[in-house]
Amino acid sequence: MSSTTLEPNPSSRGVRPGAANNQAGDRAGDSLSTGPGPSFLRVLNSEVIKFRTLLSTMILLGATIAVIIGVGSLAAWGIGQALQASSSDPQRSAALAAQGDLAASAPSAGISFAQLILGSLAVLIISSEFTTGMARSTFTAVPKRIPALAAKLLVVVVSAFLVTALSLYLAGLVAVPILDQYGHTLDVSSGHYYRTLLINSAYVAAVAAIGMALGALIRNSAGGIMTLVGIFFVLPIALQIIQGDFVTELRKFIPSNTLAPLTAADHVPDTLESWQAALVLGAWVVIPIVLAGILLKKRDV
Sorting pLDDT into bands at 50, 70 and 90, what band is 67? Predict the structure, then answer.
């Protein structure tokens, strides 16, 4: 009778206690582990690659820069013309003076267009994955799903903030010589100007975050973009048409009306305080994102 000798598994030779767990941890990622699947840093790197390699993304970012600079230049020209024409009309001059420092507001005149472009881009970044079926691959690689959503959100918010800040600064540089022709100055090195620049950039980043949440909730590009347009463009007009004390108060709590209190040097009548506006805008961002995360975990791809 022959005897059979069972050799130990070669793969287990020399393995120290806990080494198997370490090897599993290496496969899951060496830092900021998200559990099963790659680490958050690797997920973030993947989303950065997706973001910067899409031609449509670069076109929309370039369009945002062009629109903010272009509209800011036109606003500077229009404000210069209006201020020059009002010099011989005391009533018109007083009415323009009551609107604050119009020259300083010229570079940010294109913010409404920027929020539409970058908000729509945020919708497309996540909704297109469900439309094309790429979401299956994404969530197979990242089973917990939330790290993928968080990585997309981080990429979109940071990109929206940086692109808007750069565009506003360039728009200010372009507006300076235009306003100088009409005898008005714009100090792009003042603390107030930088404060306004940062707040406007943060506002557009918040709109992009809302767009990302809408894309994850609706999972349809057209539906997400139309909802975004409805919230930021249609709703303010509808509430402006409808009369009543309740509607007047309600207008203060729509996201597009939170920007003026945040950027104003002094409190604007019939608007929220700056800290209240910040809280309202934050709620508009946080609540949809939390809902998107919950539904992303519960729904099938």
Answer: very high
Integer Cα distance of 275 and 280 in angstroms: 9
Alpha-carbon torsion, ordered 250, 114, 57, 154, to 10 deg: -50
DSSP state at residue 9: P
Q: What is the Cα–Cα distance from 151 to 253, expressed in whole angstroms?
A: 29
CB-based contacts of 175: which residues, under 8 Å, 6+ apart?
Answer: 72, 73, 75, 76, 103, 106, 107, 186
Residue type, 27: R
CA atoms within 13 A on the CB side of 193: 19
Cα–chain-centroid distance for residue 140? Answer: 27
- Report whether 142 contacts 35 (CB < 8 A): no
Which two structure tokens, joined as six digits, stand for 241?
């048409």
CA 132 to mean position of chain CA atoms = 23
Residue 5 class from Cβ within 10 Å (0-12 exposed, 13-18 middle, 19+ buried)? exposed
Which residue from 109, 99, 100, 111 is spatially nearest to 76, judged by alpha carbons? Answer: 109
CB 132 within 8 A of CB 125: no
Query: In the structure encoding, which two tokens stand for residue 46, read together?
Result: 């993947």
pTM of the model: 0.83
Spell 130-146 as b/e; 16+ CB within 10 A means b. Answer: beeeebeebbeebeebb
The length of the chain, given as a count of residues: 301
161 contacts 203 by C-beta, under 8 angstroms: no
Express each pLDDT in 110-134 by its tens digit. Answer: 999 999 999 999 999 999 998 888 8
